[in-house]
Design a protein that fits this description.
This protein is of the alpha+beta class and 141 residues long. The protein has helices at 4-20, 24-27, 47-61; strands spanning 37-39, 44-46, 62-77, 80-93, 102-116, 122-134.
Length: 141
């Protein structure tokens, strides 16, 4: 059964895993393969395979990532929840042959759909980046 507490823990765990670039095998239990749809600013992906392609590109592009959740409000309806998430994302990126890396700092406004997984813990079925707003002084993507 989904609860506000289990959803808050899921959100914190999700961003921790992204920050430290865990192996994909540690991300899979958080995702619903057959139903998964992720709408990122640059691409929409489906299922484990689509997500893994996106994830592998991201962990090879960005480093020193820090995700700070400023909002995670869930509307729970039985075994599903719609979650409004706002996260401040900071990351460094280096593009060869530039002499130094650049720092990105932006707010991402997102809508997630979670369902109760087999163990009753949340799993992600839909992840949509609704808006991506660079903060003042941020490098561009």
């Amino acid at each position: 059964m989904l609860t506000q507490e289990s959803i808050q823990a899921f959100v914190a765990d999700w961003y921790h895993k992204l920050d430290v670039h865990v192996p994909m095998v540690e991300v899979l239990p958080l995702l619903a393969d057959a139903e998964l749809e992720c709408v990122f600013p640059e691409v929409t992906v489906y299922g484990y395979a689509g997500f893994e392609g996106w994830y592998q590109r991201v962990i090879r592009t960005f480093f020193d990532e820090v995700h700070t959740v400023t909002k995670a409000e869930a509307d729970i309806q039985g075994d599903t929840a719609t979650v409004s998430v706002v996260v401040q994302w900071e990351a460094s990126v280096w593009t060869a042959p530039e002499a130094s890396s650049k720092r990105i700092n932006a707010d991402a406004y997102q809508t997630w759909t979670l369902k109760a997984g087999p163990a009753g813990t949340p799993i992600l079925t839909k992840y949509v980046v609704d808006d991506f707003v660079p903060r003042e002084g941020s490098a561009t993507l």
